[in-house]
Amino acid sequence: xxxxxxxxxxxxxxxxxxxxxxxxxxxxxxxxxxxxxxxxxxxxxxxxxxxxxxxxxxxxxxxxxxxxxxxxxxxxxxxxxxxxxxxxxxxxxxxxxxxxxxxxxxxxxxxxxxxxxxxxxxxxxxxxxxxxxxxxxxxxxxxxxxxxxxxxxxxxxxxxxxxxxxxxxxxxxxxxxxxxxxxxxxxxxxxxxxxxxxxxxxxxxxxx
Length: 208
Prior knowledge:
The chain is an alpha+beta fold. Helices cover 23% and strands 23% of the residues. It contains three helices and ten strands, in the order αββββαββαββββ. The radius of gyration is 58 Å and the shape is rod-shaped.
């Protein structure tokens, strides 16, 4: 009996099919068992980066500088040797010191002059004319001494400085001594008594 190839194939086909199916099943199982687990990787939106800008606080504008009042030029009062030794201008209720000893004449005119701001100058209430020494009269010494008198809040003299002079030292000393004896109604700044200055020329002249 002769068996052909086709007959052999037909006889072994069912068995071959079973083995093929078994092999495919084994492969599929291995794929599921040994393949890496799928991990989902969702799409992430890129985060927007916002830059924080600091807003400055309210800027305080400083007030404009206050106007500074310029010190006033000292008031000049002219007095000559012809005036009486003691002249009372008016009676006042100020408590003046009975006597203020003047410092040495060499102390005057050596330092810087101090000015004070005021809108109402001091007014003399008592004037003392300087003495005219006999020696100076005989020598016919004439001229003018200009002194700067410092007046405190009560109208008292607390300093004297010589500003200029055309006479010898002997007459300068007499002018300074007289200036220390003056009394004033105090000057004011906005209706408040303050320290002030006043320029006073003393004229020495020999009269025939």
